[in-house]
Design brief:
- The chain is an alpha/beta fold.
- It has a single domain (about 10-190, about 225-245), classed as Rossmann fold, CATH 3.40.50.
- The protein is about 45% helix and about 15% strand.
- It contains nine helices and nine strands.
- The strands form two sheets. The protein has a seven-stranded parallel β-sheet with strand order 3-2-1-4-7-8-9, sandwiched between helices. A two-stranded antiparallel ribbon has the order 5-6.
- Strand 1 (about 10), helix 1 (about 15-30) and strand 2 form a beta-alpha-beta unit.
- Helix 1 crosses helix 9 (about 220-235), helix 3 (about 60-75) packs parallel to helix 4 (about 105-130) and helix 4 (about 105-130) packs parallel to helix 6 (about 160-180).
- The mean pLDDT is about 95.
- The chain binds nicotinamide-adenine-dinucleotide.
- Nicotinamide-adenine-dinucleotide binds near residues 12, 59, 86, 87 and 190.
């Protein structure tokens, strides 16, 4: 889809990592970027650095999502793009050193990563369905962030892999349902990227992770994620797909 300068783009998890890199690129492309994050202070700081507009929202909370959707449309107008990056990856074993995994752990990851992405998707779709279509009948693009853990989750990733598998699973039916409205739905499944989460790990851990990545044998750069998101936005023929972005990494059990 050819976006007009100033088109409204929603990015969740925009205050850090993959979301922040995407906000930066979209902003450079002249879009009006709504940087949505639960971390209000970080959202305001990053948004002011890159010329985005900060919005505070906890995507796992229905009332918070409903309120921010209304606020976004009131302040910026209807969106052309939603990029879901908000997510958490806390590991936990089913039977760990401290005993049985609390069911709340599993529920939390599903609620943030999967329900949060779906909830943002439904509000974005509602408002996108109302914008003027372009020459090819296109109104908008929705991209969610899955993970290679959706396909080969490691030990300790049952909850995370289930949440990301849910994103892969909902992508095609959502694309089919929203096709008559001119809204495309895709997902990106990143391998291992150098975000603040990874930067906090020791050089040794980073090198060990990188050594399992065939080519290029290094962690992904958030800018590479942002470039793929932008390509998906621009390329009308990518629809209903989850694209792996992983340097041919296939994760081992641990
Ligand atoms: N970094 C990687 O290697 C990698 C690999 C595969 C998938 N992913 C996925 O990519 C996405 C972004 O990861 P990242 O590495 O940039 O993480 P990050 O921790 O750097 O950024 C995540 C952002 O999401 C926000 N967030 C978390 N929970 C939220 C909530 N309930 N409501 C609103 N905002 C919330 C955080 O405040 C943070 O700003 C996640 O969904 C993650 O699972 C990352």
């Amino acid at each position: 889809m050819e976006l007009q300068g100033n088109s409204v783009v929603w990015v969740t998890g925009g205050a850090s990592g993959l979301g922040a890199a995407s906000c930066k690129l979209f902003s450079k492309k002249g879009m009006r970027v709504a940087l949505i994050d639960q971390n209000k202070e970080a959202a305001e700081r990053v948004a002011s650095e890159i010329g985005a507009i900060p919005f505070c929202c906890d995507v796992s909370d229905n009332a918070s999502v409903e309120a921010v959707a209304l606020d976004l449309v009131t302040k910026l107008g209807k969106p052309r793009v939603l990029l879901n990056c908000a997510g958490v990856a806390t590991p936990a074993k089913i039977i760990g050193k401290k005993g049985l995994m609390p069911i709340e752990h599993f529920e939390r990851l599903i609620q943030i990563n999967l329900v949060g992405s779906f909830n943002m998707m439904r509000w974005a779709a509602l408002h996108m369905s109302d914008v003027e279509p372009d020459d090819e009948g296109q109104r908008g693009v929705i991209i969610s962030t899955a993970s290679v853990a959706a396909y080969e989750g490691q030990i300790g990733q049952t909850a995370y892999a289930a949440s990301k598998g849910g994103i892969v699973g909902m992508t095609l039916p959502a694309a089919r349902e929203l096709a008559p409205l001119g809204i495309r739905v895709n997902a990106i499944a990143p391998g291992v990227f150098m975000t603040p989460l990874m930067a906090a790990m020791s050089e040794e851990v980073q090198q060990s992770l990188a050594s399992n990545i065939p080519n290029p044998s290094r962690l992904g750069n958030p800018d590479e994620f942002a470039k793929l998101a932008w390509h998906i936005i621009e390329n009308n023929y990518i629809n209903g797909e989850t694209i792996r972005l992983d340097g041919a990494l296939r994760m081992q059990p641990k």
